Amino acid sequence: MNTIFNIIDFGAVGDNSTDNTKAIQKALDEASLCEGKVIVPPGKYLTGKLKLKGKGVTIEGSASWSYRGVGGSVLILNDDKAECLIDITGSFGCSIINLNLTTSLNTNNIIHGIKLYWDKYNGGSEEDTPKIDGCKICNFTGDGIHFEHVWCFSVRHSMIAYNKGNGIFIDGWDGFILDNWFSYNEGYGLLGGNVVASISLTGNRVEWNTKGGFKIPFGDSFNITGNFFDRGEGPALDLGGEKQVSLATITSNIFRRPGASNNPNDKYDSCHLRLTNCKNITVISNTMRLGRNDGGGGILSPNYGLVIRNCECCTISYNTMDKSVLKELFVLENNNNCIIDNNIGSISDESFSTGSDLLN
After folding, report:
1. N or C: which end of the chain has fewer CB within 10 A?
2. Residues 306-331: pLDDT tens digits?
3. What is the DSSP-derived secondary structure letter of residue 55?
4. Rounded percentage of the chain residues whose pLDDT exceeds 70
5. DSSP SS3 for 99
6. pTM to 2 decimal places
């Protein structure tokens, strides 16, 4: 029984000209009957929206993308009426591996790269478990990845960049987000929805996202470890708000020159880390520094270090903050039963640029 399907055998042509929607969809439909794999050889394949179905389907290409370009196996959305390039709703245990997903459409319609949507929690009645690995997802008018009411997922070794929305939007739980680039998205690198819970965020590079790095307004149980947060107009990491975020460990991260907006909505948007209405949070052994744009241009930021307000039972210790802010290392308001000690650092002035001969 054949379980591997090459899109070329279904008539696909990677010439950046032929519409391949029917050919690729046919290969995916065949794979859905046997938990099979669809192979996308190197080439540039124009396509409309694609739908993954069934269980255990893999679509895999050849990853040779670069920071500024796409290469290898490239799927290019050519339908400005589509809501996404790949819809994985109802495709349980699917894998999307080593693909470039992109578009050059000029439209005001919101189009995501990869989308999963249920109208309620546990809408699929079992774990979705999508696995995205080694992909570049870029240039969409919406989010690179949009998961709404997702249950169990992983995103690894991918670059999610240059999207007009967020790098990834998550409403759901049980996720692993490991070793990715979130770069130059016009929203956040990661934005949480109504509920975000049980998420590991480890080893990611989060840089130059316009609104900020990771923003999670409400949720529970996060491991945020070993990430590199660099430049952006809002906080590098922003947890809580009107609703509570609880049970999180924030450790061994680098925070560098966030909060670079000339006109922030809130003056405390110019900070490294903001916790608002948070409980049972540990912030330990992180390192922070202010700076300008590459090459020494742009404003020097941030103004504030850690903004901790209306928090309870939090420990914030042993963070290193030398020349990390322009105004205040800590903004502390209405906190209860919190330990905030043994942090070392200093306030800088406008004469400071990067603090390193390795950076211009």
Report:
1. N
2. 999 999 999 999 999 999 999 999 99
3. B
4. 98
5. coil
6. 0.97
Distances (CA, A) of 276 to 189, 273, 281, 300, 312: 19, 10, 11, 24, 10
For residue 8, give the 3-state DSSP assignment: helix
- Tokens matching residue 218: 């409400």
d(CA 33, CA 56): 10
50-57+81-347 CATH pick, 3.10.310.30, 2.160.20.10, 2.40.37.10, 2.30.30.520: 2.160.20.10
The single residue listed with the structure tokens 């901790």 is 308
Q: Rounded to the nearest 5°, which phi and psi values hold at 254?
A: -100, 130
**Is it the case that residue 286 has pLDDT exceeding 60?**
yes
What would the two tokens of residue 247 be?
A: 């049970």
Closest Cα to residue 245, out of 268, 269, 224, 270? 224
How many angstroms separate the Cα of 339 from the Cα of each of 189, 246, 276, 324, 343? 29, 16, 16, 21, 11
Collapsed DSSP state (helix, strand, coil) of residue 22: helix
Tokens of 196: 């975000």
pLDDT of residue 358: 61
Q: What totals of helices (H) and strands (E) does the chain contain, helices first?
A: 1, 32
Asked if the model's pLDDT at residue 7 lies above 90, the reply is yes
Can you give the residue ranges of every domain in the chain?
Answer: 50-57+81-347
Q: Taking CA 279 as the corner, what is the angle to CA 178 and CA 284, rounded to the nearest 5 degrees?
A: 55
